[in-house]
Amino acid sequence: MNLSKFGTKFTAEAGILSLMDDLGRSLAGDDHMIMMGGGNPGHIPAFQELVKTRLTEIIANDDIFRDLIGVYDPPQGNIRFIESCAALLRKEYGWDVGPENICLTNGSQSGFFILFNMFAGEFEDGSVRQIRLPLAPEYIGYNDLGLREDFFVASKPRIDYLEDRMFKYRVDFDHLEIGKETGAICVSRPTNPTGNVITDEEVARLLELSREHDVPLILDNAYGVPFPGIIYSQATPMWDQNIVKCLSLSKIGLPAARTGIIVAREEIIQAVSAMNAIMFLAPGSMGAMLADRLVCSGEIIELGKTMIRPFYEEKAKKAITCVQRELEGTPYRVHLPEGSMFLWLWFENLPISSLGLYERLKKHGVLVVSGHYFFPGLRLKWKHTRECIRLTYSQNDSDVARGIKVIGEEIKRIYQDG
After folding, report:
1. What is the extent of the structural domain holding 101?
2. Does 269 share its domain with 138?
């Protein structure tokens, strides 16, 4: 089949394609694979009961049910839900936002595809701009979203070595250059894959740089504040006219509803809405209609504090205990888990590549993600990029424990064999 450049690029091998294929096959199959690689949220029974109750109410109301399945929303998304979001953010945080500052997308991934290609790529004057990632490693799903090559430029982090074989990445502002080639700055908070939460001070400095260079600061809060709030450290929700805040309903427990939320100044929202119309006609209604009451009442924020965050924080503690037990005696380090649902393991001077480790673990029935996928735009050769893996602790605790045990056994064999 003879494909265009677009077709070739988006059908080629990609980390996110491999990850989602592994995830789908594992969760749908009967091979008893231990799935520790994907970002599928855990199943929280109390939250699922809330959703079941809401679905029952929708089905019982003919008018609401008709709107759910038989009516297009506007390209900006479900207006009632957007108004509820704006009211919540004004009331809870004092943000100066209205419905004109919010747009929905069919999941965060499609939202980032639109945003990235709005702010980077080739411009009418012939100039080319890139997305600046100030803290590598970064989300695997960004890697292949650009419509041209050399779409991202990333910065190597500063590493703080901590007690109990932990470490933490920090933005290295001494070597962070925001040149005229930068179209936007983007950082996830918490950072997927590491669980790192950049500090309020780091966000403030990035915002200052974005203003200085007249480019937007995109904050990916798919796991963070205001919701779902899977953050175990201090993090102040921030927004102003130079910030593009990206939220999601996936990690509160609605990944199949594919609902991304963008909060930005009005001209950006208008542009995203226009692209929604061209590419998708309109965002889907399911997530907005399921979550509207939670947003309208403010319960969505309380659920994060009382249900969602405690669920994952307890799982993180259990997973760390397993790691410390099963990897004892090996030269491992684990990134300080401050949020999200992942552990980022670093095996110093690993005798094989992280991709080779992924393949070996897969043969033993454990799926992780090779760390080399998480460094889009990093130009420097850095062996660290081939010494790390990401694993999730969001699934069944016994499966996570068994998976970490297998990882420990395989790592010990690898270092012994040299």
Report:
1. 72-297
2. yes
**Full-model pTM:** 0.93
**CA-to-CA distance for 160 and 131, rounded, in angstroms?**
26
Nearest to 74 by CA among 105, 97, 107, 98: 105
Residue with tokens 């070597």: 175
Q: Per DSSP, which regions of 8-145 are E strands?
A: 34-35, 102-105, 121-122, 128-133
Question: pLDDT tens across 190-234, in order?
Answer: 999 999 999 999 999 999 999 999 999 999 999 999 999 999 999
Amino acid at 218: I
Q: Are residues 312 and 214 in the same domain?
A: no
Rounded Cα distance between 50 and 294, Å, is 10
From the number of C-beta atoms within 10 Å of its C-beta (0-12, 13-18, 19+), residue 323 rates as buried
Helix (H, G, I), strand (E, B) or coil at 161: strand
Total domains in the fold of the chain: 2
- 58 in any annotated domain: no
Query: What CATH number is attached to the domain comprising 381?
Result: 3.90.1150.10
User: What is the Cα–Cα distance from 346 to 24, expressed in whole angstroms?
Assistant: 26
